[in-house]
Specification:
alpha/beta, 41% helix, binds beta-D-fucopyranose
Amino acid sequence: MLIHKRSDFPDGFLFGAATSAYQIEGHKFGGAGRAMWDDFAATPGNVVRAEDGALACDHYHRYGADLDLLKDAGFDAYRFSTSWARVMPDGRTVNPEGLDFYDRLTDGMLERGLKPCATLYHWELPSALADQGGWRNRDIAGWFGDFTEAVMERLGDRMYSVATINEFWCVSWLSHFLGHHAPGLRDIRATARAMHHVLLAHGTSIERMRGLGVQNLGAVFNMEWAAPADDSPEAAEAAALYDDIYNHFFVSGAFKGTYPDRLVTALGDHFPEGWQDDMATISAPLDWAGINYYTRSLLATDDGPWPHLRAVEGPLEKTQMGWEIYPKGLHDFLVRAAREYTGDLPIYVTENGMSNADTVADGAVDDAARIAYFNSHLSAVRNAIGKGVPVKGYMAWSLLDNYEWALGYEKRFGMVHVDFETLERIPKASWHAFKQMLAG
Ligand code: FCB
């Protein structure tokens, strides 16, 4: 059971659930084009069992029943995303079927009284644009601006909120430096360019939406608490550097128009020439900020080249992902974001949740560990609100078990179990717990 009540949160606080396009829709339907995740998954060694999003949860056809699950649990909002490769299969030309799908989905939300919270980009870069360098190519800002307009000319007046990009760190660092996500590069220069261009694309998208009169615009930043692995000055420095790369760089760009000094020093030669001139576009005013939070990392140094970072296994209880459960990090990030970056702007927790080795027994799934995770993180949110942080909503990740990127269908994050053979949905105990809380 969730220990919280709706009335423990301020009036109008939004409870929602989040998903993303490639992870649930079924990308083989509706004329979607090839996305860089299709290419990444087709390359041996990148994804567990080389699984991809071709079928996923077949939300493309089952979206009505999935929206019913949101409504029946009493959620106020649905955070979904629009696949670039579905809307523009070659990255540039509109596929009307793609827009029609998001139109139906939007109407489905509104008919059920759910607030549509769109995220324009949750990683489905069309392969045709990856061929042209993807996030390394400065032109992506304009391409993304055009995609933004194609989607928002159709949906913009019906959205409750719109985010440009999901998780800037994942789009750039995880995918171009660590190589864990598509396009799977491990290249410092590509990384620096992607870091800057993803912010430039964000700012360009905001400009285009302001031009169209779309309301309530923001972006979604993922944050991972960075703690030193021991008491040494080296570990403290490692944690501070990790914190800059992961947690400060992107919000600093978007809210202050600056980058952390130590990253300008380390990466500046790799940024595109004249990058300073882009900072005004990048820091276009926003209406809200989204934070995705899951875990913390413990950092030490290594002997390799910059950034000399080594993650050390921590002592706390872990989820099925091996991620430590550390709710205090969510509280601390909410407080820090408001104090250092966003001030009075509304902050939303746009993702939070855990993967768990769920099993079906007698047609039910008892995911008590997930309920405990939600309880402790909702407590963290309430503590932050108690300190005056304007947190206006909480979106659980995720509505459904889905395609967990490089981990394929193995890791289950859903409040609703999905059988990936039959596609049958079974609400888990955590879904029932939300239903009980949201009704009360
Ligand atoms: C976030 C992603 C989301 C999902 C969760 C577990 O980084 O935004 O798509 O994979 O992690």
